[in-house]
Amino acid sequence: MANVLLILSWVLFYFLHTALASGKLKRFLEAEWPRFYKNYRLFYTLLSILLFSGIFFQALFLSVHHLFDSRGFPRYLGYLLATLGIVVFSRSMKEISVNNFLFKEEKKSTELIQKGIYSKSRHPLYLGITLVFLGYFLVAGTLGSLIHLACLALYLPFGIYFEEKNLVALFGESYRKYKQEIPAFFPKIFN
């Protein structure tokens, strides 16, 4: 039952993550509740952090069911992938002005970021998180870690689709061109 609850928690998190990031909702809030919209990004981020923390708190109380022996090579590979994921995530956050992201209106503060790690991958944040979750699964080798990874893997195509729909609406032709030149997830090794 705890595993089902974990899956449902991820479904709720990803549903709210996508629904609250929708362009239609943002336009509605901007038109109907401009004072709330001014702080919407901060609200959205804090709610995401709260829900994400709740999922990991919940995971602390899962009974441990090992799927494979993670000692040796799987564990070392897991640490390597998780570390790489943290590096990718950190480098992608370096390109984003957190202050602008949280406290300025979207239309006034955004510019299409195409430098740094964003010149190699359109969604390095997602790539970094995926590598961390994959590394965690290889280190832990548990059913709970597989559920975290599987829920993320199932969500990503939808998350990327809706995020890119918003980015096309925001940046137009420049994002379409960027989308044609830069892979969504894994960087091209050979150009």
From TrEMBL:
The keyword Isomerase does not apply. InterPro entries: Phopholipid_MeTrfase. Its main location: membrane. GO terms for biological process: methylation. Keywords: Membrane, Methyltransferase, Transferase, Transmembrane, Transmembrane helix. The chain crosses the membrane at residues 45-64, 76-93, 125-156. GO terms for cellular component: endomembrane system. It holds the Pfam family PEMT. It is found in: Endomembrane system. It is a multi-pass membrane protein. GO terms for molecular function: methyltransferase activity. PANTHER family: PROTEIN-S ISOPRENYLCYSTEINE O-METHYLTRANSFERASE (PTHR12714), PROTEIN-S-ISOPRENYLCYSTEINE O-METHYLTRANSFERASE (PTHR12714:SF9). This is Protein-S-isoprenylcysteine O-methyltransferase Ste14. It comes from Algoriphagus boseongensis.
